[in-house]
Amino acid sequence: MSRRRRVYEGKAKVLYEGPEPGTLIQHFKDDATANNNQKHATIEGKGVLNNRISEFIFTKLNDIGVPTHFIRSINMREQLIREVEIIPCEVVVRNVAAGSLTKRLGIDEGTPLPRSIIEFYYKNDELGDPMVSEEHITAFGWATPQEIDDMMALALRINDFMAGLFLGIGIRLVDFKVEFGRLYEGDMVRVVLADEISPDSCRLWDMRTNDKLDKDRFRHDMGGLIEAYQEVARRLGILFENEPKRRGPTLVK
């Protein structure tokens, strides 16, 4: 990979130029971040697990007709993806009260919501990814009204699929974050799911115990992040046998 041109590096992934025009290679790092990168650690094996879980979910979504940037897996840490123009808005779908929603509205954590709620956040690390409205998105030209409709419809479809997928393995899908991009195909452009779906971007609770199986374990210094991610992968049936033991997190100052 060192001979390929690096296109972009984020907190958890690196994008390299792909083998063909219009493609990229998405590499999953072992970095864990929280609180807008104020908290940072390297946790060996995290990138491998996120790659496997995201690959599994994106493959299933492709199979049911949800358009995504995912093409195929390359190796334990990398995927071949279509190059898209990322829409600078994170889309959050909430099914159960948790995280910032409980603080903003004074709702007890774990309270089921009357219906799934969609929120938008402007992708800007310096500003702390502030919550925005559809009016902000259209006024500043981040997305068109039709693109917003497409993102909302896809997000709800993804939510329906994933809620059922995780329910079947004893996990509650509390909420999740997704990103979308514009895929240009000749004169046509369409909105597709991009980035990743993994325990880094979802809140996943064990149905029986309410144990957290996601990045909240890192955010709240609970420990056991790798074990939680491995449990999600195991229940999905994608954890390889004879998995090497992982060391604990290495804090990066």
Overview of the structural elements:
This protein has 253 residues and is α+β, with helices and mostly antiparallel strands. Helix content is 27%, strand content 33%. Strand 10 and strand 11 form a beta hairpin. The longest helix has 23 residues. The radius of gyration is 18 Å and the shape is globular. The two termini are 27 Å apart.
Number of helices, counting only DSSP H or I runs of 4 residues or more: 6
Gyration radius (Cα, Å) is 18 Å
| Share of residues in helices | 25-40%
Q: Would you list the SSEs in sequence order as H and E? A: EEEEEHEEEEHEEHHEEEHHE
CATH class of the largest domain: Alpha Beta
Could you state the CATH homologous superfamily of the largest domain?
A: ATP-grasp fold, B domain
Main sheet properties: 7 strands, antiparallel
Provide the domain count.
Answer: 2
Shape: globular
Which class do the helix and strand fractions yield?
A: alpha+beta
Give the averaged pLDDT, no decimals. 93
Q: Could you give the count of β-strands?
A: 15
Distance between the termini: 27 Å
Task: Fill in the CATH topology of the largest domain.
Answer: D-amino Acid Aminotransferase, Chain A, domain 1
* Poorly predicted runs of 5 or more residues: 244-253
Return the CATH architecture of the largest domain.
2-Layer Sandwich
Q: Strand-residue fraction?
A: 25-35%
